[in-house]
């Protein structure tokens, strides 16, 4: 599977860069850990999730495309894994690391988005889920 080409086709780097540019207020990020709020927002956006306590992340899995979300202390750390025959296809992992694989130097300016309010968090997750849906659609198209 040519995942890198799929990510380029859906403009993964540009979309993630836009999220990081818009939500970058680290100094005023919302501190703390509110799992109930995170689950409420994820479910309100139409996704079922499972909290993986030993890794402290939320997992959304649809078909062979997994989205992991580390949500705490005002940060959103999204991770993407596309599975084929039980193995994760490369590139994989944190969105910023994937973006760096596609565009060298990405991490010099961007890493992860920060939220200062529940509204910011919901906005970030909407955009992350939009990328996730694009990846799922293109992976399914390639496999069919």
Name the structural class.
alpha+beta
Overall radius of gyration:
15 Å
How does the major sheet shape up? 6 strands, antiparallel
Helix and strand succession?
HHHEEEEEEHHH
Terminal CA distance: 12 Å
Number of helices: 6
Helix coverage percent: 40-55%
Low-confidence stretches: none
Shape, per Cα inertia axes: globular
In a nutshell, what does this entry contain?
With 144 residues, the chain is of the alpha+beta class.
Describe this structure in words.
There is one protein chain. The chain has 144 residues and is of the alpha+beta class. The chain has 6 helices and 6 strands. The protein has helices spanning 3-9, 12-22, 35-44, 95-102, 106-109, 118-143; strands at residues 50-52, 57-62, 65-72, 75-84, 87-88, 93-94. Strands 1, 2, 3, 4, 5 and 6 form a 6-stranded antiparallel β-sheet that branches. A hairpin with a 2-residue loop joins strand 4 and strand 5. The longest helix is centred in the last third of the chain and has 26 residues, at 118-143. The chain starts with a helix and ends with a helix.
Describe the structure using short key phrases.
144 residues; alpha+beta; 6-stranded antiparallel beta sheet; 6 helices; 46% helix
Task: Describe the SSE topology.
Elements: H1 3-9, H2 12-22, H3 35-44, E1 50-52, E2 57-62, E3 65-72, E4 75-84, E5 87-88, E6 93-94, H4 95-102, H5 106-109, H6 118-143
Antiparallel strand pairs: 1-2, 2-3, 3-4, 4-5, 4-6
Helix pairs in contact: 2-6
């Amino acid at each position: 599977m040519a995942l890198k080409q799929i990510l380029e086709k859906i403009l993964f780097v540009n979309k993630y860069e836009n999220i990081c540019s818009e939500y970058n207020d680290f100094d005023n990020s919302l501190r703390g850990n509110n799992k109930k709020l995170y689950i409420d927002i994820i479910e309100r956006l139409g996704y079922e999730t499972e909290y993986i306590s030993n890794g402290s992340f939320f997992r959304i899995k649809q078909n062979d495309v997994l989205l992991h979300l580390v949500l705490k202390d005002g940060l959103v750390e999204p991770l993407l894994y596309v599975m084929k025959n039980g193995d994760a296809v490369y590139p994989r992992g944190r969105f910023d690391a994937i973006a760096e694989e596609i565009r060298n130097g990405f991490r010099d300016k961007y890493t992860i988005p920060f939220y200062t309010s529940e509204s910011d968090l919901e906005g970030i997750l909407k955009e992350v889920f939009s990328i996730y849906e694009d990846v799922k659609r293109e992976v399914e198209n390639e496999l069919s």
